[in-house]
């Protein structure tokens, strides 16, 4: 009788472990899909078919006809151009932008819409979020925190979240990040979000991908001035904390995922 009970217990344990392994594998596979999509958005190659202005013309610069670039262009106006749509806009390797009111402007994405597009692979109903929409308050229908830290109920900035916690609390939360999660900062003056590729917990570094745009001199920030993306950005915990970044994720990545 005892032998039968042990066999039954062993069988149950095997089934549970197998199920846990399969669920973990499915979740990791979904996480990698998110990261791969973001990486491809950052690296799709194209050549400017004509001079194209940046998303705002105050810089007096833009993409130059005949020059090659990488990644979906940065735009806060036409910000809903995902990978599939941008590839369709490229004709024989060239992207021409849109003629509008005497200007040639571009379709593109900004930091938060780019992350949203990657997460839409797991939730097709997810809208194009802004960094304001990414604060993990209890009323947020899409975003949750990674790790255990306090979020004020009526928080409107990540600064308020940082102030509510100790540095140790936030660093512990950073260490819980996984591929496909994100770090977001939202201050009164604006915000930014970065998708997580991996985390080096030992050295307290997050490696991420983000859509950045241009610097104060209107120079593209990635790939030696040929891309508005950085796809291998190393972010020490100290830097993240000093800039009020908090760790977040899509609910579908935090919840238990059933096998398809």
List the helices and strands and how they pair.
Elements: H1 2-43, E1 45-48, E2 52-53, E3 62-63, E4 68-70, H2 83-89, E5 94-95, E6 98-100, E7 103-105, H3 111-119, E8 143-145, H4 158-163, H5 167-174, E9 182-187, E10 190-200, E11 205-211, E12 229-236, H6 237-242, E13 246-250, H7 251-254
Parallel strand pairs: 1-5
Antiparallel strand pairs: 1-4, 2-3, 6-7, 8-13, 9-10, 9-13, 10-11, 11-12
Helix pairs in contact: 1-3
Work out the count of structural domains. Answer: 2
Number of strands: 13
Helix/strand structural class? alpha+beta
Query: Helix and strand string, N-terminal first?
Result: HEEEEHEEEHEHHEEEEHEH
- Which geometry do the CA atoms define? globular
Strand order of the largest sheet: 8-13-9-10-11-12
For the largest beta-sheet, the strand count, sense and barrel status come to: 6 strands, antiparallel
Mean pLDDT across residues: 89
The end-to-end span amounts to 38 Å
Given as residue ranges, the uncertain stretches (5+ residues, pLDDT < 50) are: 10-23
**Number of helical runs?**
7
Radius of gyration over C-alpha positions, nearest whole angstrom: 21 Å
Helix content: 25-40%
- Strand percentage: 15-25%
Short summary of the structure?
The chain has helices at 2-43, 83-89, 111-119, 158-163, 167-174, 237-242, 251-254, and strands spanning 45-48, 52-53, 62-63, 68-70, 94-95, 98-100, 103-105, 143-145, 182-187, 190-200, 205-211, 229-236, 246-250. By secondary structure, it is an alpha+beta fold. The protein has 2 domains: 2-43 and 127-254, no CATH class; 44-109, no CATH class.
